[in-house]
Automatic annotation (TrEMBL):
Pfam family for this entry, one: EAL
Range of residues in the leader sequence: none
PROSITE patterns linked to this entry: EAL (PS50883)
Transmembrane annotation, as ranges: none
Entry-linked Gene3D superfamilies: EAL domain
Highest taxon of source: Bacteria
UniProt xrefs under PANTHER family: CYCLIC DI-GMP PHOSPHODIESTERASE PDEF (PTHR33121), SIGNALING PROTEIN YKOW (PTHR33121:SF70)
Residue ranges of domain EAL in the record: 1-58
SUPFAM superfamilies, per the entry: EAL domain-like
Official protein name in the record: EAL domain-containing protein
Length: 58
């Protein structure tokens, strides 16, 4: 159960999404949505498994 008294500082994107971002539109959409959520909540994002420029810019 979510409690508004808890502080959220960071969202993490699992490498299973990041690996296929350049070629899988669903993974790219999920990643963009997580990043937008983090932006709206004013928290940082960690993406596991980023290895290429394409993964960072998709």
């Amino acid at each position: 159960m979510w409690s508004s008294s808890r502080t959220l500082e960071q969202l993490k994107i699992d490498k299973s999404f990041v690996g296929d971002v350049p070629t899988d539109e669903n993974d790219a959409a999920i990643t963009r949505t997580i990043m937008a959520l983090a932006d709206n909540l004013n928290v940082s994002v960690v993406a596991e498994g980023v290895e290429t420029v394409e993964q960072m810019t998709s």
